[in-house]
């Protein structure tokens, strides 16, 4: 019972993380609250991967919902026999947790690439990725940020929001990974039998 409550807490934690990922990703489309840059496609290409909205957001909400259903008191009624129910609950829980790692890992990777690439902005030479060839050095050298003339403060906007997405998706990966480790430990340490012996049911 205690492990199930712990699992429910972990699964429930995925919900606010997913909601915040959606919100943060949406904010990336509106530098300084302006909609004109999104409508004219003058945003970083990594913003259009929908990493926070779809993968670390909507897909993670579905994963969390599935895990909460699996951990509910009524989930054991899916088949006859206690070991049978635990077997399928464990396998399904691990599958959804691994999917969660994949979805949040995608968001983590894309957000990191977007952070290192830097924003798409207007410079003296026109619209371009002003920091694409700096290998991320601009992140610690604020004197370079003045190269971006428009949108205003877009460098800070991208750094803050992509960093938040990295943290949120990193927490999601951690939660799902912990769930996988817990389920594996139940199997490998013999908390219950996953293989149904003949004659048990």
Automatic annotation (TrEMBL):
UniProt key word Transmembrane helix: yes
InterPro entries: L6_membrane
Protein location: Membrane
Main location as per UniProt: membrane
Entry keywords, A to Z: Membrane, Transmembrane, Transmembrane helix
Bilayer disposition of the protein: Multi-pass membrane protein
TM annotation in the entry: 12-31, 46-70, 91-116, 159-182
GO cellular component, one term: membrane
Keyword RNA-binding set for record: no
Family membership noted in the UniProt record: Belongs to the L6 tetraspanin family.
PANTHER family: TRANSMEMBRANE 4 L6 FAMILY MEMBER 1-RELATED, TRANSMEMBRANE 4 L6 FAMILY MEMBER 18
Name recorded for this polypeptide: Transmembrane 4 L six family member 18
Organism: Molossus molossus (Pallas' mastiff bat)
């Amino acid at each position: 019972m205690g492990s199930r409550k712990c699992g429910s807490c972990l699964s429930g934690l995925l919900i606010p993380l997913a909601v915040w990922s959606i919100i943060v990703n949406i904010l990336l489309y509106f530098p300084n609250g302006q909609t004109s840059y999104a409508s004219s496609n003058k945003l970083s290409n990594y913003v259009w991967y929908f990493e926070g909205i779809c993968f670390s957001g909507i897909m993670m909400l579905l994963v969390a919902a599935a895990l909460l259903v699996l951990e509910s008191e009524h989930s054991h009624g899916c088949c006859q026999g206690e070991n049978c129910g635990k077997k399928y609950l464990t396998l399904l829980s691990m599958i959804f947790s691994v999917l969660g790692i994949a979805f949040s890992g995608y968001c983590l990777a894309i957000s990191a690439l977007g952070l290192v690439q830097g924003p798409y902005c207007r410079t003296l030479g026109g619209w371009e990725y002003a920091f694409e060839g700096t290998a991320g050095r601009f992140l610690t050298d604020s004197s370079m940020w003045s190269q971006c003339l428009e949108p205003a403060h877009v460098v800070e906007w991208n750094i803050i929001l992509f960093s938040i997405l990295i943290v949120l998706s990193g927490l999601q990966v951690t939660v799902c990974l912990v769930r996988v480790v817990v389920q594996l430990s139940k199997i490998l340490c013999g908390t219950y039998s996953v293989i149904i012996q003949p004659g048990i049911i």
